[in-house]
Specification:
251 residues; alpha/beta; Spore Coat Polysaccharide Biosynthesis Protein SpsA, Chain A; nine-stranded mixed sheet; globular
Length: 251
């Protein structure tokens, strides 16, 4: 089995339905789907009974605790996290990744790619990934556009003491053990706006600052500069969205 898709959710029935449709539509069949539900009360439990997925529904300690539960149950060679509301870029995404791995004739420790981002009800924007070497200055693509080799994860887990940016710490720590990284030059996910990280952008920047400080990835001065640039980037996106997306786009 090549892929394990891990979805965490809580009281997001409509979002889970969108994710389910995307997963079920994949033309590549070498995957398993694991759903970790935080004891939803909106009908999610009933939906889980109809899905072809390994699922559990029980209280948890937040998103990252749920992700850790998913890791413990994974059996695939690569793990990708696709939370409720998020979808693959199209029905051939997993096939495209598998084909690209075969094309480059290597089995990488880590794969990352571009993303589509839903910026309005009927409009998406192409968001090209930055080089993974930029990880020390922030996430270089969406977490949903990253794939981790399960055997390289080992006993690494998300640090749930970080409520917003634990995925950033996880990725930084994981990359330290990687010898081969593969960039896939196509969109992997369609990212749904309005998630936890976007709703709490300031807290996310604060947590990323603390993570870089904890892991000693950059100098104190570079850490401060990075945090300032992140805040400026968010203001630029809010003030000039058309120009922002022109800059971020593949084209």
């Amino acid at each position: 089995m090549l892929f394990t898709i891990i979805t965490v959710t809580r009281n997001n029935l409509d979002g889970l339905k969108r994710t389910a449709q995307s997963v079920k539509s994949q033309s590549f069949e070498g995957y398993e789907w694991i759903i970790i539900d935080g004891a939803s009360t909106d009908g999610t439990k009933e939906l889980l009974l109809s899905l072809n997925a390994l699922s559990i529904s029980e209280p948890d300690n937040g998103i990252y605790d749920a992700m850790n539960k998913g890791i413990q149950r994974a059996n695939g060679f690569f793990v990708i996290f696709m939370n409720a509301g998020d979808t693959f870029a199209d029905e051939h995404t997993l096939l495209n990744i598998a084909s690209y791995i075969e094309e480059v004739q290597e089995t990488p420790d880590f794969i990352y790619g571009d993303a589509l981002e839903q910026i309005s009800i009927d409009k998406t924007a192409y968001k090209k990934a930055r080089p993974y070497s930029k990880a020390k200055t922030g996430m270089f693509t969406h977490h949903q556009a990253m794939l981790y080799r399960y055997d390289k994860i080992d006993d690494l887990r998300y640090d749930s003491s970080y409520r917003i940016a634990a995925d950033y710490k996880f990725t930084l720590q994981y990359l330290e053990s990687c010898s081969t990284v593969l960039y896939a030059p196509f969109p992997i996910c369609l990212f749904e706006q309005g998630g936890v990280s976007q709703q709490n952008a300031k807290q996310g920047r604060t947590e990323q600052f603390r993570i870089r400080e904890e892991l000693n990835t950059v100098s104190p001065l570079q850490n401060k500069i990075t945090s300032i640039l992140q805040a400026m980037n968010l203001k630029f996106r809010s003030a000039c969205p058309a120009l922002y997306w022109k800059f971020k786009s593949k084209n």
